[in-house]
Amino acid sequence: MNAAQLDLLALKPVQTNSLDSRFAAWLATPAGETILRLFIAEAFEMKRYGWRRASGKAIIERLRWQRHIAVELDRRGFKLNNTWTSRLARRAIANEPRLEGFFETRELQT
């Protein structure tokens, strides 16, 4: 490769539509705020019933099963997008430190 080709490789586009940025945008919507509030409420309900640990996915599925959630569909047509599960758990912990240790978190893959 010559210097010009190497320079072109260095000019990778900045990803402005990252998963984190899409999650942040969704979370700022009324639908995102509602889902986060319900997610946190479900986590605390599970704790009250003696659960020491739970998965964010279990809470998402519980919300899907037990509640008809009247929120807007996202741009891809989902009310509860599976892509947001781990980020919802992390945000729940950030908002409610009493949930620390309730969810197992791993390194994010973006």
Low-pLDDT stretches: none
Bin the strand percentage. under 5%
Determine the number of helices (DSSP H or I, runs of at least 4 residues). 5
Give the number of DSSP strands: 0
Alpha-carbon distance between the two ends: 30 Å
Structural class label: mainly alpha
What is the average per-residue confidence, as pLDDT, rounded to a whole number?
80
The SSE string, one letter per element, is HHHHH
Radius of gyration: 18 Å
Helix content: 40-55%
Q: Characterize the main sheet.
A: none
Number of domains: 1
Instruction: Note the overall shape.
Output: globular
How would you describe this protein?
The protein is mainly α and 110 residues long. It has one domain (19-99). It starts with a helix and ends in a 15-residue tail after the last helix. It is globular and about 40 Å long. It contains five helices and no strands. The model has no long low-confidence stretch (mean pLDDT 80).
